[in-house]
Design brief:
Layout lengths: L1 H17 L10 H16 L7 E4 L12 H10 L6 H10 L16 E4 L1 H9 L4 H8 L6 E4 L3 E2 L5 E11 L2 E12 L2 E12 L1
Parallel strand pairs: 1-2, 1-3
Antiparallel strand pairs: 3-5, 4-5, 5-6, 6-7
Length: 195
């Protein structure tokens, strides 16, 4: 009798060792959108202000999205532990430029600026930044976001942020974020341009 029990116990133990792990469910578009806005809000906190001006079109570099692959290769050489699925998600979500929604929940006041509005503002005269700050006195400058790449568990995120506050005062960064106690925090950053 004890041999039978031992055999059953061994079979159960063996079965539990070979059981496949429960797969992580694929996040819905709504979940991704909510998390993307939470990532944007976390990144805006790096530029303290009472209001923000955000470009309405996404980009992955100062020039737009044209150099995404090259820039991303450089970034990944300088970041550690980026999940391949996070990188894949970032690439897919940034194949083309996207318009940001004007109803994003960022927990801070913001205005979306189109490229045409930016060009018009800065083509009026040589000192477009004076006009900018007269029009948007609460803004620290102009911020550009990429779409956010996520891993499937939605606890790692990769995002580009460009920030310009004067003609020769700006920089672009790729941020790797992780979710800690339900909040997005920056884990690593890599600068890709500076002026």
């Amino acid at each position: 009798m004890s041999r039978k029990l031992l055999s059953i116990f061994l079979l159960l133990a063996l079965a539990s060792c070979t059981a496949k792990p429960t797969p992580i469910p694929t996040p819905s578009a709504g979940q991704i959108e909510t998390e993307e806005q939470a990532v944007y809000a976390a990144l805006l906190a790096r530029y303290p202000a009472s209001g923000y001006v955000i470009m309405d079109t996404t980009a992955t570099d100062i020039t737009g999205i044209e150099n995404t692959s090259q820039t991303l290769d450089f970034v990944l050489q300088n970041m550690q532990a980026v999940a391949p699925e996070t990188v894949d998600s970032f690439r897919v979500r940034n194949e083309t430029a996207s318009l940001l929604r004007n109803d994003m929940q960022l927990s801070v006041p913001y205005v979306l600026m189109s490229l045409a509005d930016r060009q018009a503002l800065f083509s009026i005269n040589q000192d477009g930044w004076t006009l900018f700050y007269n029009r948007y006195p609460d803004a620290p400058g102009i911020i550009t976001f990429s779409r956010v790449g996520f891993n499937q568990a939605l606890d790692q995120a990769l995002c580009y942020v460009g920030f310009q506050s004067q003609l020769l005062s700006g920089a672009g960064y790729y941020f790797l974020l992780k979710k800690v106690n339900g909040n997005w925090v920056v884990d690593q950053q890599v600068m890709t341009w500076v002026s």
